[in-house]
Design a protein that fits this description.
- This protein is about 20% helix and about 30% strand.
- With about 475 residues, the protein is an alpha+beta fold.
- The strands form four sheets. Strands 1, 2, 3, 4, 5, 6, 7, 8, 9, 10, 11, 12, 13 and 14 form a 14-stranded mixed beta sheet that branches. Strands 19, 20, 21, 22, 23, 24 and 25 form a seven-stranded mixed beta sheet that branches. The protein has a two-stranded parallel ribbon with strand order 15-16.
- Helix 4 runs antiparallel to helix 5, helix 4 (about 265-275) runs parallel beside helix 6 (about 310-325) and helix 5 (about 290-305) runs antiparallel to helix 6 (about 310-325).
- The model is unreliable at about 1-35 and about 465-475 (pLDDT under 50).
Length: about 475
Amino acid sequence: MLSETVMFRVPTLINQNFSAAGLGLALIALCLSPAQAQSRVLNAAFTPTPIQVDGQPEDAWSKATPSDIAICMNPQRTAQLGDCRVSGTVQALWNGPLLYLLFTVTDPDVTSASPQDTRRSGVQVYVDQYDDKFPKFEEDDGSITVSAAGQQTGNRTNAGLPYYPALWSTHLHSYAAASRIDSTGSKIGYAVEVSWSIGDLPLKNGTRIGMEFVINAASSSSGSPQYQVYWSSGNNKGTNDNTMWGDVILAGYDGKSPMQLNTFMLQQNITKATPSSSSATGLVRGIWSGEAAVDRALVAARTALQKAKTQSEIDSANTALDTALRELRRSGKYPDPYDLPAVNTLPDPFTFLNGARVRSAADWEKRRAEIQDLAQYYEFGYMPAPPQGLTAISAPNASGAANSKSITVTVQDGGKSASFSPVLYLPSAGTPPYPVIVEESFRAVAPPNRAFIQGGYAVLSIPTTDNPAFGAKAA
């Protein structure tokens, strides 16, 4: 079995052109601190039998080399601590579409009472599924937290949008936690087991999954986090930057041992194809040509999921369903986007969709209306009719910002309601009525650009995570 290794990455000098810039990059890489320049590697050993995820390690785990989780940081991650009483190891196994992780934690003060996951004893797993090490949150990045008592939480969806599901909601297969007891019957810590779906990756030796592992050490007396213990880097910035995470590498497969059937992609396509009134949870029906082919492939896929005995049966059903989904075309008054011709330059505004040219002012009015209709059809959607009810209630801004009001806007229609809470900032100069700048902001409580306020403009700041177009809270 391969042993744990530490990788050191430096820039590659191509064709031996050792330029000054190349030398500078190499020197920078060599001068980086260990936490910056190194990323750890954990080899996941192949197990011919699936693991029962129950928090109680079985004999198969003896094949997996433990790797220390030992970089102890203060809760703010601003300083490394030298005397931490909590320690742990992580081990990895794999069989087919499942990666198994075992955390063995020694902790003299285990607590899980807090409603906040970072204030509970437990482990965090950060995942960069496709191991692209990109310093910005992407849809293949995510994290889960499992407490010593088996409580599970995870990162939120991207910008709160339901059609970008959190990675763990699709890939977390199972998890469990159990106390660790010494020979005298005293509790000395806990163990956490996790199985993670990797069925969307090549199931072979050498496949890499970007990961970071963290132990949360909480205090039962104060109910606050004492410190966090990291595996690869104490400079962890969460899902906002995965460049310092390490890698788990699939290893040890002999090329002939049986694997569990990989149904991951088939299950994903079944979810996509299942009829739904919401595109966030399935395929909206009644707007496509080719729906009958999807229905036939969906029936066959569900049958294969229940009865298939071989991977080839699963793959065949998945290919058929995936093909049917890809061949769907929108059955509207304009062509499906896949059927539109490629345009490699800016489109000509004076050419109609049918290829005719604008030759008069009257033609332009028709073309102008066509452009508006195309934008609504393909991009924005059509403006709905006015709602049955709309209320707006102002109140003092909770942030205390001067000349500002918090406004709760509630829309009622069709027996449902949705609300969002923009903030109105009034200018410091001029007299009403004021011109208003409407902006969408991730943080409506943040004051707007001072140039607007000083220039006599009011600013209505709408939080993108809270308005109806971006998934507002609805009743």
